[in-house]
Amino acid sequence: MSVPAFGLGTFRLQGQVVIDSVSSGLELGYRVIDTAQIYENEAEVGQAISASGIPRDQLFITSKIWVANLGKDALIPSLKDSLRKLRTDYLDLTLIHWPSPQDQVPVAEFMGALLEAKQLGLTRRIGVSNFTTELLQQAIAAVGADQIATNQIELHPYLQNRNVVAAAQDQGIQITSYMTLAYGEVLKDPLIRQIAEQHRATPAQVTLAWAMQLGYAVIPSSTRRENLASNLKARDLRLSDEDMAKIASLERAQRLTNPPGLAPQWD
Could you write out the DSSP letters of every residue in 15-45? Predict the structure, then answer.
């Protein structure tokens, strides 16, 4: 897969909290770290990675370009600033975090700049985040499907985003699921709890395993070391076809991330 199946997210974590989370994650065996310019934690993430002593070639680091930096004259300088903060010469994956509001910067312009960043060696892979089917088609038209490693989207049992998933997978583009645990909402779900009991697993492990079994990458975050360790065990959990079908039945179009003025017209 273009993107490793399991990683560590850092959304909403800042200062010493994100340093501790990333440090604990790396000690436990995480090697994929996901951050973003707008998280305002790249410097702290870079500090934790540097202090770990783990060789750079054993890590997979992702960051995302914020909408204010999508213009062709701003994107590459902003990426270089991210690299400086993260204390690395390159990213493994750089994403467009959100499409440009009201199409202020055309998709072709920022995807072209992102591809140039790849050609310059600033990033090994490029991709998009929060892209609808229509926006994904525009991105493909701009740089080709083979250049787009992933579309990172909100995806959990209550919002399975099947149209966007199908459109991406038809083009060989991997899906990365963010908010896979729906801010913890799915952990209370009776059906998921029942499946977890049957497998002697946690509801979080079941939900993460469900997403990975569908071929999605996941990037759960936690500030608690025991949760970070527990989540890792999702990689070894195998759900039955019946389990998968039951979880699929939980779809209810419950979108949790829909910032006004920023979110596109969703599928």
Answer: HHHHHHHHHHHHHHT--EEE--GGGT-HHHH
**pLDDT tens column, 135-182:** 999 999 999 999 999 999 999 999 999 999 999 999 999 999 999 999
Q: How far apart are CA 77 and CA 215, in angstroms?
A: 33
247 exposure class (CB count in 10 Å sphere: 0-12, 13-18, 19+): buried
For the cut 80, the answer to whether the pLDDT of residue 113 exceeds it is yes
Is 39 a residue of the active site? yes
What's the farthest any 2 CA atoms get from each other in the chain?
A: 54
pTM score, whole prediction:
0.97
Tell me which of 39, 158, 178, 216 is the catalytic residue.
39
- Looking at the domain assignment, is residue 266 inside a domain? no
Range of the domain at 239: 8-248
Handedness of CA 153, 232, 206, 41 (dihedral sign): negative
Does residue 259 lie in a domain region?
no
